[in-house]
Amino acid sequence: MGRASRKMRGVVATSLAVGLIPILTSTRAYAVNPVAPYGNLQNSSTYGWCGATAITNSLQYLESGHPSASLIDGSLTQTRNDILNLEDGITPGNPPTGNPSSNATIWNSKIQYCNEFAPGQMSFAAQITSSDAGGTNGYTGWNDTADIQNSKPTDAFLQQQLADGEDVELLFEGTTTDASDDSASDNLSGGASTTSFSHAITLTALDSESGAMTYVDPNNPTQFLTATETVDGNGYLSFDWNNQGANDPVNGVEIFGAIAESVVPSPSAGSLAAVCLLMGFCMRRRRSAATKSW
User: Fold this and answer.
1) Can you tell me whether residue 77 is helix, strand or coil?
2) What do you get for the CA distance between the two ends of the chain, in Å?
3) Alpha-carbon span 148 to 118, nearest angstrom
4) Percent residues over pLDDT 90 in the chain
5) What is the pLDDT of residue 135?
6) Residue 84, Ramachandran bin (φ over 0: left; ψ between -120 and 50: alpha; else beta)
7) Which one of 18, 82, 117, 156 has the fewest beta carbons within 10 angstroms of its own beta carbon?
8) Domains in the chain, ordered, with CATH?
């Protein structure tokens, strides 16, 4: 899961366009504890399950805004296990194996899971460069490649997701100089001591003017954490990652992509009302024309 493997480099941005109330871009709106309506599932300290855990915490938020989507399979733990099983090709309901994830398996399992639990309601989009999608193979192994933009993630893309009341998962990579078997390596790379890592979090707010952002981290999911978004010399969105003791702080982690899915809303009461008003207007016009004298 290090920089050399390039397997998990990306951002997972999960979006649910269901007419939710737009999320405020001020971080003050999320300076609360506990984290709600986002999930607070803890990442496994044995396996690097941060991607599936962050997705699950996001799906809790999405279901809170649109319960008919039924995106949680009974519990947060079971939902994460289902996603992990889909990544590994295992029948949902079995214990996950802990096999390492990749950008492709995260993307594909999210699509499959959402389509199974919200059939016919989902659409997908992604913003990630082909070089970050999986090394030299680009988007090989990815499903729905027509929905993928070959682009580094942008602040505008993330802002749009939040403004639409959607949720966003970020997957980023960083390097730590501490080679000891500490909490950072425990939570990110299956307990092995490494100097580079990939990780996933759920973005909850972003102010593009100041760069202030808040997020839920599966390593410390009981509170909203804060950081400042910048653009580094490589043109990637970047921030200093500090989970207040849950792992070693790492400065200048890079966000490599944005992957989103949305629920296509059914006609709302407002749209039906608009149709009724239009029909009434047309009927009045017809009635007026029939009685008009020439």
Assistant:
1) helix
2) 81
3) 21
4) 24
5) 62
6) alpha
7) 156
8) 27-266 (3.90.70)
